[in-house]
Design goal:
This protein is α+β, with helices and mostly antiparallel strands. The chain contains eight helices and 14 strands.
Length: about 425
């Protein structure tokens, strides 16, 4: 039997097989990649929204003086960390101290004047008693003169009393009637003066008199003005944009520097309007900063959605009602609160760019925020108020207010004499 030799493999056939194997491999890789992407989309992508249009924000507290003055001391500079209550700038206190001295002198004079009003009550009461005694004496003399005239009248016809003597008695009676009217008028005038004086003093103690309260308010205002010559840090933060210089004359309200509260950072993530469909307040979020790379993840949660797009609040808003119009996808800022522990481990700065991913699997939260229950839930709230509230008990005056009150009480006690005036005022209130 003749033998058959194998068909030789041509180079074209081998190349075709290799090409077919490569295409099958590529198809398998594409299929596996598509399957992996599908699984990834089902498990994560469809339940998340992400954006790289996100930036770090923080409360930026502008330090502005409430009074004008010359800067005589600048205690901090840019990039320095400050604590609440730390001195930042001191203004020249000369004018404020002079105004305080004048206000204290005016309060002392007012207390003495009001004290004189209370003292006048006793003087006017003594005058009324004197006028009443004079009135009683005039009434007695008038009654006596009337009796003399009545006795002499029948004796004139008998010739026992001369007509001239009788006329003298009648003229004396008329004069006494005039004296009685004058005494009555004097009593009425003295009573009116006492009533007018008691309108100024009755019902209040000396330290509660309106004139004293007005002068005391001027002293407290002068204390407040003197206090405002020292500018202190309202929050814990870092100094930025310092513009004030030593010896510079600054006006009230002019910005001197800013304090950035870096422990109150948050992220404004600008999502496209189509991405807001499933974003709710309270959803967890993850963020990464270009400063640290994707290896450092910041954890947080959604605490608020903006009330409008950025274009709606722009200085020059878009005018879309025109002939030539192109639709532009708008973005709405979503506020992300970051975990304080992450911020402590990896500090951030204002304005840094971030990449944010929000887990949208929970859809039970609201889309509009409610009133915040704490400062941590509302980083943009007034952290200065929170710092001041934490440094003093509720309802207690500050140290400067206590010093002003002590100064007022000292001046009143020094110039008010004894407490007789206060007791007299209380007595008048009870008698009325």
């Amino acid at each position: 039997m003749p033998t058959t030799s194998p068909t030789p493999t041509t180079p074209a056939t081998a190349s075709s097989r290799r090409r077919r194997s490569a295409l099958l491999g590529i198809a398998a890789v594409v299929l596996l990649a598509g399957l992996a992407y599908g699984v990834y989309w089902v498990l994560w992508l469809r339940n998340s929204e992400s954006t790289d249009n996100a930036y770090v924000q923080a409360p930026l507290v502008q330090i502005t003086p409430q009074i004008g003055g010359t800067a005589i001391e600048i205690a901090v500079d840019d990039t320095e960390r400050v604590r609440p209550g730390q001195v930042l700038v001191r203004l020249d206190p000369g004018d404020a101290r002079l105004a305080l001295t004048q206000a204290e002198a005016q309060l002392a004079q007012t207390v003495r004047d009001v004290r004189g009003l209370y003292a006048n009550d006793g003087t006017l009461e003594a005058q009324i008693a004197l006028r009443r005694a004079e009135l009683q004496r005039a009434q007695t003399e008038l009654a006596k003169a009337q009796d003399d005239v009545a006795r002499r009248r029948p004796l004139v016809t008998d010739g026992a009393v001369g007509r001239e003597e009788f006329q003298h008695a009648e003229r004396a009676l008329e004069a006494l009637r005039g004296s009685l009217a004058a005494a009555q008028a004097a009593v009425t005038a003295a009573q009116a003066q006492l009533a007018a004086n008691r309108v100024q003093t009755g019902g209040v103690a000396l330290e509660r008199h309106p004139a004293v309260l007005r002068a005391a308010a001027a002293v407290r205002e002068a204390h407040l003005t003197l206090q405002r010559t020292t500018l202190r840090a309202p929050v814990d933060g870092v100094v930025a944009r310092r513009t004030v210089q030593l010896g510079q004359r600054v006006a009230a309200g002019s910005p001197l520097m800013a304090v950035v509260a870096l422990d109150q950072l948050w992220v404004d993530a600008n999502f496209k309007e189509g991405q807001l469909r499933d974003i709710r307040i309270g959803q967890p979020a993850e963020a990464s900063a270009d400063q640290y790379g994707h290896g450092v993840v910041f954890h947080g949660r959604v605490i608020g959605l903006g009330a409008g797009t950025g274009a709606a609040f722009a200085l020059l808003p878009a005018q879309n009602a025109t002939g030539n119009w192109i639709k532009v996808v708008q973005r709405v800022p979503v506020r992300i609160a970051l975990d304080a522990r992450d911020l402590a481990a990896h500090p951030l700065r204002v304005g840094l760019s971030m990449e944010v991913k929000v887990d949208t699997r929970r859809t039970d939260g609201p889309t509009l925020g409610s009133a915040p229950s704490s400062v941590s839930e509302a980083p943009a709230a007034s952290v200065a108020a929170a710092a001041s509230a934490a440094s003093a008990p509720a309802g207690a005056p500050s140290v400067d207010e206590a010093a002003a009150d002590a100064d007022v009480q000292r001046i009143i006690a020094r110039n008010g004499g004894t407490t007789a005036a206060s007791a007299a005022g209380a007595g008048h209130a009870r008698s009325r």
